[in-house]
Amino acid sequence: MRLDRLTWPEVEAYLDRADGILLPVGSTEQHGPNGPLGTDALCPEAVAAAAAERLGVLVAPTLALGVAPYHMAFPGTITLTPETFQAVMKETITSLARHGFAHVYVLNGHGGNIPFIRGVLKEMKSPRCRLHSWFAGPRVRALAKDLYGKAEGLHATPSEIALAWHVAPETRREDVAMTPERAPGGFEKEPDAFRARFPDGRIGSEAALARAEDGARLLEAAVEDVIEDYRAFTA
Description:
The chain is α/β, with parallel strands linked by helices. The chain has one domain (3-234): Creatininase (Rossmann fold, 3-Layer(aba) Sandwich). It contains eight helices and four strands, in the order αβαβαβαβαααα. The protein has helices at 8-15, 39-55, 82-99, 114-123, 138-148, 158-167, 191-197, 212-234; strands at residues 20-25, 58-59, 103-108, 128-133.
């Protein structure tokens, strides 16, 4: 159930029986030549929706802008400063707490957000909050290793692209040639240096290995990880 698709009386009725909500958080940034800019938001949003359906809990609107300054040399990327991102996170969670949501489960899709989310959650006295990145669950990690091994890489990975393609079929770009097949590793913080080192945006990945059918398996693995972790969080 999506919070933004309900009326306020329906949310009030929900809060009479439950107090938990999933909050997807992502980013809008380049994901190589075959991955949509919205990958980091599409993935946690889809996982949250499927997990919430099984758990019988609400899903908050996705926070689709994150902290990604190093990708700004690639057209389409949108970044927030850490201060703005943390302010939005804090005010979103504070709003939910005001209405009676006592458990806020932050489901993240962008690695660059993690330290800033942790900083916000560390400051929060109420409600209870938990951070989980969909790609970090044990089932997802095991499946990605089985499917791609070292070709998974660090950014514009075949696993995240496969999941994005599965949940948003219009984003599929399956015939994009990439040279080299596996992108170089490492990292650069400055945008122009990043693009110079990683000309097509990938880091260490073979993104051409992505398949939408793999995305279906990754979604199920991610949902199972979230359900298990959410139940432990709210127990």
